[in-house]
């Protein structure tokens, strides 16, 4: 699995270097859980941040992305006697489509889908008996997926801001942590992401952009 991910990243990097459009984006995400487990079915909020690098044609790019947890998703179980806090880091690849007459410069609808690996840690806290507190990580990274829809709009030239809704899902395996047994379940979550990107264009895409920008510079 890891060798396949590495090979995919190399292919994506090659696409970025030889494409007509190169995008570098940073973003922050407000997330809400939708876990498919009875004890953890209540929606909990957490924050993430990340970065994306994508390249390819003006309207279609392949890319790689990295996301980190800023805060964890916290659940109160057993009438508040136990709390679980989950944090996940993600690395993966994605396909991005922007529907716009001039994607690197103009407003447009953005569609994206991707897959990658989640590295999850969990912290168990016992408010009535802090000596029992324990934390650990899931031994294996979990393969997950996501798809999203949003828009991006120019701030200045090829600097754009974006707002995206993204649905994320993966299967979290069972875990034994100390004398506590955590069940397996599907760990879905919704994400609303605010991003800022720099877009570089080359070749034919650059020529079209220059033709569009030339009359504006004369004003």
Query: What is the radius of gyration?
Result: 21 Å
Strand content: over 45%
Number of helices: 2
What would CATH call the architecture?
Beta Barrel
N-to-C CA distance? 55 Å
According to CATH, what is the class? Answer: Mainly Beta
SSE order: HEEEEEEEEEEEEH
- Name the shape in a single word: elongated
CATH topology: Porin
Describe this structure in words.
This protein is mainly beta and 219 residues long. It contains two helices and twelve strands. The strands form two sheets. Strands 1-2-3-5-6-8-9-12 form an eight-stranded antiparallel β-barrel. It has a two-stranded antiparallel sheet with strand order 10-11.
Which terms would index this structure?
mainly beta, 2 helices, Porin, single chain, 219 residues, 12 strands, two-stranded antiparallel ribbon
What is the structure about, briefly put?
The chain has helices spanning 2-18, 203-217; strands spanning 21-35, 45-56, 60-69, 73-77, 82-99, 108-125, 134-137, 142-156, 159-172, 175-177, 180-182, 185-201. The protein is mainly beta.
Q: Which helices and strands occur, and which strands form pairs?
A:
Blueprint: H1 2-18, E1 21-35, E2 45-56, E3 60-69, E4 73-77, E5 82-99, E6 108-125, E7 134-137, E8 142-156, E9 159-172, E10 175-177, E11 180-182, E12 185-201, H2 203-217
Antiparallel strand pairs: 1-2, 1-12, 2-3, 3-5, 4-5, 5-6, 6-7, 6-8, 8-9, 9-12, 10-11
């Amino acid at each position: 699995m890891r060798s396949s991910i590495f090979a995919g990243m190399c292919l994506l990097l090659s696409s970025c270097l030889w494409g007509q459009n190169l995008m570098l984006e940073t973003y922050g995400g407000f997330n809400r859980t939708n876990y498919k487990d009875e004890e953890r079915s209540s929606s909990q909020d957490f924050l993430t941040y990340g970065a994306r690098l994508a390249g390819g044609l003006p309207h279609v790019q392949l890319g790689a992305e990295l996301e980190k947890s800023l805060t964890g998703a916290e659940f109160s179980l057993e009438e508040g006697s136990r709390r679980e806090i989950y944090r996940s880091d993600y690395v993966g690849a994605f396909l991005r489509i922007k529907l716009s007459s001039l994607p690197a410069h103009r407003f447009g609808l953005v569609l994206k889908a991707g897959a990658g690996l989640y590295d999850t840690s969990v912290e168990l806290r016992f408010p009535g008996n802090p000596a029992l507190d324990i934390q650990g990580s899931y031994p294996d990274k979990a393969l997950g997926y996501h798809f999203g829809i949003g828009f991006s709009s120019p701030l200045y030239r090829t600097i754009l801001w974006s707002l995206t809704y993204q649905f994320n899902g993966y299967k979290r395996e069972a875990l034994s942590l100390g004398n506590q047994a955590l069940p397996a379940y599907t760990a879905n979550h919704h994400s609303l992401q605010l991003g800022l990107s720099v877009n570089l264009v080359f070749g034919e895409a650059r020529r079209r952009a220059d033709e569009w920008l030339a009359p504006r510079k004369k004003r």
